[in-house]
Amino acid sequence: MLEFDGLTRRFGAVVALDNLSFVVEAGQVFDFLGPNGAGKTTAMRAVFALIGIDSGVVRWNGVPVTSDARRKFGYMPEERGLYPGMRIGDQLIYIGRLHGMSTIDAHHATEAWLTRLGLADRARDKVESLSHGNQQRVQLTAALLHSPELLILDEPLAGLDPTGIDEIGAILVEQARAGCCVVFSSHQLDQVEDLCDSVIIIDHGRLVVTGRVDDLANSGARRLVVRIEGDRTGDWAHGVSNVTVSEVTGGEVRLILGEDVDTDDVLEAARRAGRVTEFVMQRRRMSEVFREALQ
Amino acid sequence: MKSVKFIAIIVLIIIVASLRVWRRRRRRAQASGPVHVARVPRRGFVTGDVALVMSRELRERIRGRFYLFGTAIILLVVAAAIVIPVIHRSKAQSENIGVVGTLPPATRSWMVTLAHDEGATARFVTVSTLAQVKTSLADGHIDFAVVGDRELVVNTLFSSSDVSTTASVVQAIATRLGDERALAAAHLSSQQAAVLARAGPLPIVALHHGATKGVNATSLIGVILIFIMLSQYNTWLLIGVMEEKSSRVIEVLLAAVRPVKLLSGKVLGIGLAALLQASVVVAFALILSKAVGSDVLHGTGPLEIIATLVWLVLGYSLYCWIYAAAGSMAERQDQVQSLALPLSLPLIAGYIVSLTSASAASPSLLLKIFAYIPFTAPFAMTVLVGFGAVAWWQFATSVAITLVTTYAVARLATGIYRRAILRTGSRVRLRDFRGS
Questions:
Q1: How sure is the predictor about B292, in pLDDT bands with cuts at 50, 70 and 90?
Q2: 3-class secondary structure for B379-423?
Q3: Is A199 in contact with A211 (CB distance < 8 Å)?
Q4: Under a CB-based contact definition with an 8 Å cutoff, are residues A197 and A28 in contact?
Q5: What average pLDDT does the structure give for chain B?
Q6: Domains along chain B?
Q7: What is the model's pLDDT at position A58?
């Protein structure tokens, strides 16, 4: 269990972390959300003592994190970090060894992960010769190689194509199911919704909201998606009382319903505008949870 | 026959045991896979993380093209410095001496000796007349002619500044022939003449050992080697630390290793690469010099070689921390260049003063002072050793001062490194640490 307890960090007049406290249970995929400059990276770096904190403590399994404990953690920084001119295989073995693995274990783990990620034939190549996506895969391997108890990944999905996101997402879920505590940050809120068990949203270094994805999605105002043949604007909905148009995409109108709104009234209004081809109640998306939390 | 059987059995046992160990380790590694791996606890400072970082640095540096190419270039230069003089010496110039009349065998003998002393081989050509002398000189068949004991004839008169072999041989033979003629005119016996011919200056005995013999060539080469290596390897360190920072790999490393261990491993690895290169160069020079019979390293004693290597190690130990700290403050190549210049000033000052003093007959006062300043001692003390102008306790004192300074500098530098290495954006300046 990872525990942030009252973390505070100031950079001059800027407050990066403001008495931030939350807990991440082991075996979970935990998404760290927040606008740019909210303090996500600072909080993640605090776990590895890459940044000093003014007050507070980070605990792992109830004990303040030590350098020995950190050796069992895996880390993927926001700005990727590998030796550009070093061979991929050698580099991964080196990082594995730094995390306490024996040479032979590091060698075999490197082989196994590179094979899984389709990079087995590139082990003798230099990192700089790889594409962005493959460099990302190697960077993830560096964090996973030693089978960490805690995996902290800063924007691991940034710059990846949908296949890459699915591939890395599957690995993160698999790690969590194997007992690892997976914490990552991402701006692709709706894409990662299926990956995460829980999320935390912070802003200006302060906790805004945290909870399980299902709980957050099912809470708040109801969402209704309506599609009417030939309608591209959703203007018909503006006349329905206590209903707000959240977004209109390709003729699909997403509505936020007030507490006392009867869906039959909405359906009636829709029918008056044309032939209704879609009328579905939906959960809150993570992007909506995010936006509404920060409002 | 029994012993052969015994050896065969032992070899078989070793092979079987090795195979079993290998298979067991392989099975264990395969069983571990990427999910469950056994961790090796590493607590020691030198045997754990430091050794890992050090071996990576050493391996990557030695494998690099710059290292291999640089070593090859240095070895080529050293080989040229040793072999070219030997080739030049072996191709001794031939001096064709025209002889008008007769020359006694004894005279011919000392003429051969004199010519050899000047690096030439004397060959005598009989010339019957003066007219033939002129023709032979004009044609180049002879270099000069000895006409009885009266005169030497040359094509054109040598200037006083002419240092050619022919001019030297002509001058030496003319002087000796003049002496011989004077001795003959004095009607001395051959024994008396021989005694006079062997006359030499009296030995000068000093009451105290002075340092007036000039610096040993080995120490001079050592100073040049130290300067090249300190400049090269400290710059590598500066750029290496900067690259780790700019490529952000530093965050991945520091997530697992403490900064002081990472830095220690890095300076040790690059230092070992430097020492290895220096050792290869020194060993190559000594072996080649011995093989071709070169006198470039003539008189080289173990003291000069050891002193050079000691000061190379001490110099690197001192400067490496400063360069590493500076590297942690930079993030781009242009920032590295602006940092490298002021850092290299004490290196250059020590090098120039030592090199200038080395060409003098005795060590200057400035050189003696520089020998006790840690930043210039690697050059100055090496030259003082070459002069033979340093007692063991003076050497030890300088080493002690340098070691104490190195300790203080290392502590300061690791503090700067720890604070600066993770700070990105604009270049970190020393004043940023004030009060932190």
A1: confident
A2: HHHHHHHHHCCCCHHHHHHHHHHHHHHHHHHHHHHHHHHHHHCCC
A3: yes
A4: yes
A5: 81
A6: 49-80+215-426 (no CATH), 93-191 (3.40.190.10)
A7: 94
Q: What whole-number distance in Å separates Cα of residue B67 and Cα of residue B240?
A: 14
Average pLDDT over residues B291-313: 77
> Of residues A172 and B163, which shows the higher confidence score?
A172
Choose the mutation target among A51, A86, A104 for the interface with B, i.e. most B CBs under 10 Å.
A104
CA distance B56 to chain A (A): 8
- Flag whether pLDDT at B207 surpasses 70: no
Burial class (CB in 10 A: 0-12, 13-18, 19+), A54: exposed
Q: For the sheet with B151-154, list strands across it.
A: B120-127, B93-100, B144-147, B151-154
Question: Quick check: B211 pLDDT over 50?
Answer: no
Tokens of residue A41, six digits: 């990276």
Provide the β-strand partners of residue A278: A227
**Which chain A residue has the Cα nearest residue B245?**
A81
Burial class (CB in 10 A: 0-12, 13-18, 19+), B343: middle
| Host H or E run for residue B372 | none
Per-residue buried b or exposed e for B161-195, using 16+ beta carbons within 10 Å of the residue's own CB: eeeebbbbbbbbbeebbeebeebeeeeeeeeebee
Determine phi and psi for B18, rounding to 5 degrees: -60, -45
Q: Which residue has the higher pLDDT, B43 or B229?
A: B229
| Contact residues on chain A for B38, CB-CB shorter than 8 A | 101-102, 105
DSSP B44: -
What are chain A's domains?
2-217 (3.40.50.300), 220-294 (3.30.70)
Sign of the alpha-carbon dihedral angle for A52, A55, A60, A66: positive
pLDDT the model gives residue B3: 53
Dist. CA A157–CA A141, nearest whole Å:
14
Q: Which two tokens stand for residue A57?
A: 């403590």
Q: How far apart are CA A184 and CA A45, in angstroms?
A: 12
Interface contacts (A, B; CB < 8 Å): 97
Please list every residue in chain A whose beta carbon sits closer than 8 Å to the beta carbon of residue B37.
101, 105, 109, 146-147
Per-residue pLDDT reduced to its tens digit, A40-90: 999 999 999 988 899 999 999 999 999 889 999 999 988 778 898 899 999
> In the Cβ-directed half-sphere of B76, how many Cα atoms lie within 13 Å?
6
Query: Any bridge partners for residue A58, and if so which?
Result: A4
Most confident stretch, A45-49, B1-5, B29-33, B355-359: A45-49
Whether residues A77 and B248 touch (CB distance < 8 A) is answered with yes
Cα distance between residue A293 and residue A285, in whole Å = 12
Contact check, Cβ <8 Å, A82/B247: yes
Widest CA span of chain B, in angstroms?
108
Q: Are the beta carbons of A171 and A140 closer than 8 angstroms?
A: yes
Residue B321 in 3-state DSSP?
Answer: helix
- Could B37 and A48 be called an inter-chain contact, meaning their C-beta atoms sit closer than 8 Å? no
Average pLDDT of B16-41?
55
Count of C-beta atoms within a 10 Å radius of residue B391:
8
Closest approach of B313 to chain A, Cα-based (Å): 27
The token pair at A291 is 């936006």
Q: Which residues of B197-226 are buried (b: 16+ CB within 10 A; e: fewer)?
A: eeeeeeeeeeeeeeeeeebbbbbbbbbebb
d(CA B371, CA A3): 57
